[in-house]
Amino acid sequence: MKDIRIAVIGAGMAGLTAALSLQKNGFKPVVYELAPQLGEVGAGLTISPNSTHGLEYVGLAEDLKKRANVPEAQAIMHYQTGEILVETKRGEIPFQKYGAYYYQIHRADLHDMLSAKAKATDPNCLVLDHAFSSCVETDDGIEITFTNCNKVSCDVVIGADGIRSAVRTDMFGPEDPKFTGNVAYRGLVNKGDLSDDLVTPPSGVAIAPRKAFTRYLVRNGSVINFVAFVRRDGWDEEGWSIPVTQEELLEEFGDWHPRVSDLIKAAPEDKVFKWALYDRDPLEQWTKGRVTLLGDAAHPMLPFMGMGAAMGIEDGVVLGRAFGASDTIDEALSRYEAARKERANYVLVKSRAARERLQSDNPSEYDDSKHKNEESIGLFEYNPGTVPV
Ligand SMILES: Cc1cc2nc3c(=O)[nH]c(=O)nc-3n(C[C@H](O)[C@H](O)[C@H](O)COP(=O)(O)OP(=O)(O)OC[C@H]3O[C@@H](n4cnc5c(N)ncnc54)[C@H](O)[C@@H]3O)c2cc1C
Questions:
Q1: What pLDDT sits at residue 192?
Q2: How confident is the model at residue 254 (pLDDT cuts 50, 70, 90)?
Q3: How far apart are CA 302 and CA 332, in angstroms?
Q4: Going by fewer Cβ within 10 Å, which terminus of the chain is more open, N or C?
Q5: If you measure from the C-alpha of residue 313 to the centroid of ligand 1, how many angstroms do you get, rounded to a whole number?
Q6: Which residues are catalytic?
Q7: Which ligand 1 atom is at minimum distance from the Cα of 297?
Q8: Ordered strands of the 287-288 beta sheet
Q9: Alpha carbon distances (Å) from 366 to 27, 79, 248, 258, 334
Q10: Ligand 1 residue neighbourhood (C-beta within 6 Å)
């Protein structure tokens, strides 16, 4: 079983975590990624204790301590007055409760940690500039064709190619993700000599009718990451990194508390982007033959619980453990899907409802006890490195 040829499609958080977990369990996966190089894309991601456990399982505990931030607390604030409406203590508390820290990190730093670790174990595990096109079962296993016309034979295909997964389309036919009526803006601002008041408290979300503005520190406190959400009726632009002018952002947030509007004014225009938020309905079946899905390819979700990357990391860890515990590929895929599908689909559905917690028609009367968040529904209690598979 250990010498089976495993092709992982997509070197995002989920695909790379799957590769690391498979390596840890004695396999030699190869990850095929469409990008010609792994670059610095994206902004901040939250790593809640459940995903910290996953990253620690694949050997990244020390890297996380060095490169991720532990927020002391997270606040919900009024968008105009800046008043703190609710504060959740973090710091050592998640470690005491769940045995793992709550971190905030730049997506590019996490991506770099994952790919460096996978390449350190096997320098040939990552093949860039290979976009999956289709696959067919043959006498020799499965033959994958890439858009550059290269072909590769393998025994099992793991589709970790994100929300617009070509593997998913190949398995189940075309079905576009749904625009959810939400647009996100993200920006990175060097803390430099900006006043400390601008990031007091260091991690928080300002809530307003139909809008929210989240910000926290990454890169050891040297960079302020912000993500702002607004509702929109329609959308026709494609991609993660559509440039945004300061004017456009100030039209949305210019009359907010100075901790929001001044931060936007301090953001360099080449570091601010927007993207539309899509998701899909839960998928009943993730596996077909010897092809399976994980991460956003299986369950793309809204970011209102900060669980998109976490679910991909959990999937990746469990997938590697499922292969490690099985005598056949079919057994491994069935153990993986049985262990993961219910939880990931549940979080997908809950992430839709969570928008209402972060946007409020009447922020001054905001009452957190009326809302369920990712911690109160028990998501932090999960450890992908130890759950039964
Ligand atoms: C460029 C980028 C920037 C992002 N920025 C943010 C951000 O700032 N904040 C945030 O919260 N989330 C961001 N996300 C989303 C977040 O990283 C994911 O929702 C989450 O981590 C789930 O990870 P995933 O590995 O399943 O999917 P993804 O992170 O989307 O990774 C999928 C990978 O598959 C590759 N791929 C796609 N199609 C093919 C194909 N046909 N063949 C081979 N490879 C393919 C992609 O290039 C990508 O590397 C970003 C995603 C991307 C791709």
A1: 85
A2: very high
A3: 29
A4: N
A5: 12
A6: 216
A7: 26
A8: 126-127, 30-32, 6-9, 156-159, 291-293, 287-288
A9: 50, 12, 28, 21, 44
A10: 9-15, 32-35, 41-43, 45, 107, 131-132, 160-162, 166, 186, 240, 295-296, 303, 308-309, 312
Looking at residue 361, its pLDDT comes to 83
Encoded tokens for 262: 């001044």
H or E segment and range at residue 87: strand 84-89
Give me ligand 1 centre to Cα 364, in Å.
36
* Pure H helices in the chain: 13-24, 49-57, 61-67, 93-98, 107-121, 166-172, 246-253, 258-266, 308-324, 329-353, 355-358
| Buried b / exposed e along 123-157 (16+ C-beta atoms within 10 A) | eebbeeebebbebeeeeebbebebeeeeebebebb
For residues 25 and 321, is the Cβ–Cβ distance under 8 A? yes
Q: What is the 193 CA–ligand 1 centroid distance (Å)? A: 33
Say whether the peptide bond before residue 201 is cis (omega within 30 degrees of 0).
Answer: yes
Per-residue pLDDT of 218-235, as tens digits, reads 988 889 999 999 998 887
d(C-alpha 78, C-alpha 89), whole Å: 18
pTM greater than the 0.85 cutoff: yes
CA of 164 to the centre of ligand 1 (A): 9
Q: How many CB atoms lie within 10 A of CB 37?
A: 7
Q: Which atom of ligand 1 is nearest to the CA of 45?
A: 11
Task: Please name the residue whose Cα sits nearest to atom 6 of ligand 1.
Answer: 42
Rounded to the nearest angstrom, the distance between the alpha carbon of 162 and the centre of ligand 1 is: 5
Q: Can you tell me which atom of ligand 1 is nearest the CA of 165?
A: 38
Angstrom distance (rounded) from CA 232 to CA 298: 25
- Measuring CA to CA, how many Å separate 300 from each of 177, 231, 349, 354? 9, 19, 10, 15
- Helix axes 258-266 and 246-253, enclosed angle (nearest 10): 180
> CA-CA distance, 124 to 29, in Å (whole number)?
9
pLDDT of residue 355: 82
- Is the C-alpha dihedral spanning 348, 350, 356, 358 positive or negative? negative
- pLDDT, average across residues 250-262: 93
Question: Over the stretch 279-331, which tens digit does the pLDDT of each residue have?
Answer: 999 999 999 999 999 999 999 999 999 999 999 999 999 999 999 999 999 99
Structure-token match 């997509």, residue found: 10
Identity of the residue numbered 242: I
pLDDT value at 55 more than 80: yes
